[in-house]
Amino acid sequence: MGLKKGRENPLAHVESPQRNAAGLAAPSWNSAGSRNLPASVGFRDSYYKVETSLPFIALTFDDGPHPLNTPRLLDILKKRNIKATFYVVATNARAYPEIMRRIIAEGHEIGNHTVTHSNLTTMSAAGVRKELIDAHESIVATTGVAPRTMRPPYGAITSAQKKWIREEFGYPSILWSVDPEDWKKPGSSVVTSRLVRGASPGGILLVHDIHAPSIDAIPSAVDQILARGYQFVTVTQLLATDGKG
Ligand SMILES: [Zn+2]
After folding, report:
1. N or C: which end of the chain has fewer CB within 10 A?
2. Are 166 and 202 a contacting pair, CB within 8 Å?
3. Does residue 171 belong to any structural domain of this protein?
4. 125 C-alpha to center of ligand 1: Å?
5. What pTM does this model have?
């Protein structure tokens, strides 16, 4: 496809920054803890939600892309012109590059959710750094667009990790304000009602697009949240409203 594939020395980009589709340099980093900070979004190391009274809310989908459920979800979002954020696992990103490109083509955002989906708090800094670099590069290789935020698997991350990850990668760590625990498969209507009940200005909703019943929950959930006057935005758009209004 002419897109860059394969795995190369992750530190090569210190010398030669990768460029995304917009021609902007992707963050550069080095293992000594670079001080040339990449452009970053937001002004905090991490977010559970954003401080705003404006009716903006972010819908986030983790652990995909999934070959059946993610395209079905994309159809649902497209029909309503809703933009979401996908925290993809790099193994799935590599397996389904065409779905990755569809996510971007339809105006959604992609964030870094590591390669192996491990608990980062149990790993060395070098191990965490490798997870994030490899996942970042897989996303750039499949879509041409660099991720700007990360979500730690299981929400497990230390304050110190949040700080250095933001310094080196420019990523704020994105947690969530609403977890419907859809991975426990409580049934679509339960997931729907938990999402609707939890919606609040500046909120971040967590769903997993690898589970079919989670996708089933989305049409009713988003329609009810829209009916309450909310507008769905991507995570970086939401961060831009932090402290405003
Ligand atoms: Zn996950």
Report:
1. N
2. no
3. yes
4. 20
5. 0.86
Terminal Cα-to-Cα distance of the chain (whole angstroms):
45
In a domain, residue 13? The reply is no
Of 67, 169, 69, the residue nearest 111 (C-alpha): 169
Chain-centroid distance, C-alpha 20: 17
**CA 11 to the chain's CA centroid:** 23
User: Rg of the chain over CA atoms, in angstroms?
Assistant: 17
* Domain residue limits at 75: 45-239
Whole-number Å distance, alpha carbon 117 to ligand 1 midpoint, is 6
- pLDDT tens-digit readout, 104-121: 999 999 999 999 999 999
How far is the centre of ligand 1, averaged over its atoms, from the C-alpha of 244 (Å)? 29
Q: Which residues contact 21 (CB under 8 A, 6 or more apart)?
A: 143, 144, 145
Question: Ligand 1 mean position to 173 CA, how many Å?
Answer: 13
Sequence-distant (≥ 6) Cβ neighbours of residue 1 within 8 angstroms: 97
146 CA to middle of ligand 1, Å? 19
Give me the number of domains the chain comprises.
1
Out of 117, 208, 209, 211, pick the active-site residue: 208
List 45, 62, 134, 182, catalytic entry: 62
Query: What CATH number did the domain enclosing 213 receive?
Result: 3.20.20.370
Residues 6+ away with beta carbon under 8 Å from 67: 95, 96, 99
Instruction: Let me know if residue 107 belongs to a domain.
Output: yes
The answer to whether 176 and 143 are in contact (CB under 8 A) is: no
Does any domain span residue 121? yes
Give the tens place of pLDDT for each residue, 114-142: 999 999 999 999 999 999 999 999 999 99
